[in-house]
Amino acid sequence: MEVSTTVWWITGLITVGVLLVDVLVIGRRPHEPSMRECARYLAVYIGAAIAFGIGVWVSAGGQYGGEFFAGWLTEYSLSIDNLFIFIIIMGKFAVPRQYQQTALLIGIVLALVLRAIFIAVGAAAIENFSWVFYLFGLFLVYTAIHLAMEANDDDAQYDEPKLVTYLRRHFPIHEQWDGVKLTIKENGKRALTPMFLVIMALGVTDLLFALDSIPAIYGLTKEPYLVFTANVFALMGLRQLYFLIGGLLERLVYLSYGLSFLLFFIGVKLILHALHENELPFINGGEHVDWAPDIPIWLSLTVIIGTLVVTAVASLAKDRRDHRSGA
After folding, report:
1. How far is it, in rounded angstroms, from Cα 154 to Cα 80?
2. Which of 269, 260, 254, 323 is nearest to 300 (CA)?
3. CA-closest candidate to residue 197, choices 234, 160, 222
4. Considering only CA atoms, which of 126, 124, 83, 112 is closest in space to residue 219?
5. Would the pTM of this model clear 0.85, i.e. be above it?
6. What is the pLDDT of residue 68?
7. What is the spatial distance between Cα 192 and Cα 195, in angstroms, rounded to a whole number?
8. Domain residue spans in the chain?
9. 161: helix, coil or strand?
10. pLDDT of 75 above 70
11. DSSP assignments along 36-95, one per residue
C-alpha cells in the first residue's frame, strides 16, 4: 500500500485538529457529560471510522479495507476492555466525576503518543527482522493465556504502578483536589496534586496496553498507516464510551475471555505468517511444500466479528439469567 508523505501529514494534522477540538471545545470545562452528549460524539467518531474504512476499501482495494476494519475492531475491543482498568483507577484515586473527563482526555493523548512511538518501532523491526513475527506471536499467545487466567481470578486487583508509588515517597503530595491542576504551591513549596498521580497511572497503563495492542494489530496488517489510523479511531470516542457504557461494562462478563481468544488467534496467525514468509518447507516426495498457511484477512475479520458477537450475546444472556435468579 503506497501512502505518500502528503497523506501522512494530512492524517497527522487532522488527528491533531480533532484532539484540539476535543480539548478546547468539547472538554473546555470540567464536567460530567450527559448521555446524549456522549452518544452524539461517539456516533460521529464511529461513523468517521466506518467512512474511512470504506474509503480505504474503494481506493486501495478490499484487502487493505478488510485489514483496516479488522485492526480497528480489534483495537476498539481492547480499548473497551481497558476501560475496566480506567474505572478502577478513577475509583482508587476517588476522582470526582466532573474531573474524570479531563483525566481521560489527557490519558488518551498520552496513549496516542505512546502508540505512535510503538508503531514506528514495530514497523522498523518488521522491515529489518522478519523473525520479529515469532516474538510478536509468542508474546500474544502468552498474553492470551495470562488474560484468560486473570479473567477466572475473582481476587484479581489493580496494583498501583511503581512510578506512582515512587512519586508518593519522594515528592510532596497535596491530598485535596484543586480542580484539574497538576501541581500547587503549598507552604511555599511546589506539590503534586491527585490529578497528576491519576494521569501518571493512566500513562503507565496506556504503555502496558500498547505492548498488547500494537503486536496484535501488526498480526492483521503490516501497513504502518493502517496501524496508526486504526489506533487513532479506536481511541477517539473512548472518553465518551467510558461515561456511556460504564455500567454495561460490568455486564460483559465474558469480554476478557473473548479478547483472550482473539489475542491467541492473532498470535497463532503471526507465527504461521512468519513460517510462511520465511519459507520453511518440509520434504514431501522430494518436493518442497510450503506447509504453513497464511490466514487470509477475510477469515480474520470473520473470526473477530464472530467472537465479539458471541461474547456480547453470551455475556448479556448470563446477566439476564443472574437477574432472574436473583444472583
Report:
1. 20
2. 269
3. 160
4. 126
5. no
6. 93
7. 8
8. 5-87+112-152+218-325
9. coil
10. yes
11. HHHHHHHHHHHHHHHHHHHHHHHHH-HHHHHHHHHHHHHHHHHHHHHHHHHHHHHHHTT-
